[in-house]
Amino acid sequence: MSELHKFIFEGLPVRGMLVRLTDSWQEVLRRRSKAGDAFPEPVRRLTGEMAAAATLMQANIKFNGALILQVSGDGPVTLAVAEVQPDLAFRVTAKVVGAVAPDARLEAMLNVHGQGRCAITLDPKDKLPGQQAYQGVVPLHGDRREPLQQLSEVLEHYMLQSEQLDTRLVLAADDQVAAGLLIQRLPVEGAGNLGRPRNEDEIGLNEAYNRIAHLASTLTRDELLTLDAETVLRRLFWEETVRRFEPLAGANGPRFACTCSRERVGQMLRSLGRSEIDGIVVEQGRVEIACDFCGTKYDFDAVDVGGLFTPPTNQAPLPPGVH
């Protein structure tokens, strides 16, 4: 069962989380395979890491809205998206337009000509009038313009640039598990910090964080994918005093769920305009839309399309007893 573990280090300004997506991640891949659109192995690895990372970030900020992690670029993968709701329901997809080498890393997939970007969007569930979603964007290269090869490096760079918080991320995914470990320095507060930007205190200088981040960095891909949370935390931090909280699992934990619906697909079709949709119906007999995230197919025939573009007041009343 997929699960999320939160913990803190007693007496130290450091917190952590560990996520393991198992059955939920396998369901994503099963649906993709069933739809006849299985991703190449490097893309499966990337989207799995994105699902784990986005889950960690959503759980970290407790935001009442969707957190959307997106990487886009100019390689054979033009877009990959992971979306996580406040209740930790997640979905993930990617658009692959060219051949992906078996050993392709981030640069070869998305940043071939240096145009790759990573965006994190916070889309509030209950927007106020005029309120826009917040979005932060960073390139897929470091401060010296060196291409970053791992998603974890990009997100660590994002957290430092956008949030002024030291963060260490370890991510891994295969066809069975998508997992991630996050270690983050908590901002120091108190009278001694008056007049100084709170989040910039001790960036890169806190000894406790640096020690724990170094320990986290020793976690191997195989260990993260194969060991349970208890074993991982014990092996890494056996000399630290770690206080763990009740893990989130099942209905309260991370799980696959898609927010697509026939109504939302209908709204999308209406936005394209009547003439374009009628043209598709004439040519193909119907409009068939498959959700990129979950593979669910939605069919709209000529009658359905007519209903989409007919105002409710002009539609014929239903027969008695039909609702």
How does this model look, in words?
By secondary structure, the protein is α+β, with helices and mostly antiparallel strands. Helix content is 33%, strand content 26%. The longest helix is centred in the N-terminal third of the chain and has 21 residues, at 41-61. It is elongated and about 70 Å long. It starts with a strand and ends in a 15-residue tail after the last helix. Mean pLDDT is 87; it is low at 190-199.
Key structural traits:
323 residues, alpha+beta, 6-stranded antiparallel sheet, 6-stranded mixed sheet, 10 helices, 14 strands, elongated
Low-confidence spans: 190-199
User: How many beta-strand elements?
Assistant: 14
Binned strand content = 25-35%
Count of helical regions:
10
Global Rg: 23 Å
N-to-C span: 40 Å
Query: What's the story with the biggest beta sheet?
Result: 6 strands, antiparallel
Helix content, binned percent = 25-40%
- Overall average residue pLDDT: 87
Helix and strand element order:
EEHHEEEHEEHEEHHHEEEHHEEH
Q: Helix- and strand-based class?
A: alpha+beta
Shape: elongated
Question: In a few lines, what is going on in this structure?
Answer:
This protein has 323 residues and is of the alpha+beta class. 33% of the residues lie in helices and 26% in strands. The strands form three sheets. Strands 1, 2, 8, 9, 10 and 11 form a six-stranded antiparallel sheet that branches.
